[in-house]
Amino acid sequence: MQESKRPKASVIVPVYKDVAALNAIVSGLLRQTESDFELIIAEDDESEEVAEYVKRIKTRFNCLQHLSQKDLGFRKTVAVNRAVVNARSEYLIFLDGDCIPYKNFVRAHFNNAEKNRICTGRRVDLGPVASRWVKQKPGLMSMLENPFFYLLMSIPLHIDGIRSYEVGLPLRLFHWLAKRRHLGLMGCNFSCYKNDMIKINGYDEDFVGSGGEDDDLEWRFRGLGIVAKNIKFLAPVYHLRSSSRRGSTSENYELLTARRTENLQFVCKNGLDKYLAKRVDNDC
Question: Are 223 and 158 in contact (CB under 8 A)?
């Protein structure tokens, strides 16, 4: 395919088994005000249910890639690195498999893109009841994206245990007031140029299980002069409450502390470079 026909952005979504959550995310991506992007479903498993679901929705996107790998425990770093290498766009936008994007999510990230910068946003943590409703009926997200309805529902949402409620009010005034504050990288809502991700060799796959991998990524970005750009209130995502986390481990934070103390190189040794030679330019 000609370079001119490549999508503006690649949206990378790591997933594990939860087809209902993936369906809610897909519903959010199909509502985007910017449609010129490819979707990469980076599966940390080889689930038949996910594969069947992807077949059903494939024609609804201009380009959709589904990458899978054996379930050997929580290996998000591996799944995302493989997706980065296979992305057809030069601009990458990262979600998580339990976070639904606001309708202007892709446009806000792309419009704020800068080389040697990471755009980083924030998430609303929905309570268990709202999470269950949205997974059952993803169309309800269009109501939560309506500022009037969102404010009207503030009391029941707080009773349900919503966190970071204010992030769900994507107003430019709020962004203007907050944009000069430093925001740390959040793996469920950030974006960068592909070349910048390659410069640091992507996620460090020595981080096995959840925890610390995003902090390490930001630390290495910053070490090479690739700094964060605050886009809070421009591109919120809505996090679905889950009862468990896969492979949560404290060892990762010990590794993170050791790496910073030893001041190792900002280009990790166990990263995405191993996949570059195996890259296939998929034609959508």
Answer: no
Closest Cα to residue 125, out of 40, 236, 259, 210? Answer: 236
Span 247-267, pLDDT tens digits: 557 788 888 888 888 767 899
Rounded CA separation 144/133 (Å): 12
- What is the reported pTM? 0.95
pLDDT value of residue 1: 38
| Closest C-alpha among 44, 40, 85, 97 to residue 68 | 44
pLDDT at 248: 55
- CATH level 2 (architecture), domain 3-270: Alpha-Beta Complex (3.90)
Pair of tokens at residue 250: 């404290």
b or e along 43-81 (b: 16 or more beta carbons within 10 Å of the residue's beta carbon)?
bbbebeebeebbeebeeebebbbbbbeeeeebbbbbbbb
- pLDDT (tens digit per residue) in 198-249: 999 999 999 888 888 999 999 999 999 999 999 999 999 999 998 555 555 7
Within a 10 A sphere around the Cβ of 168, how many other Cβ atoms?
24
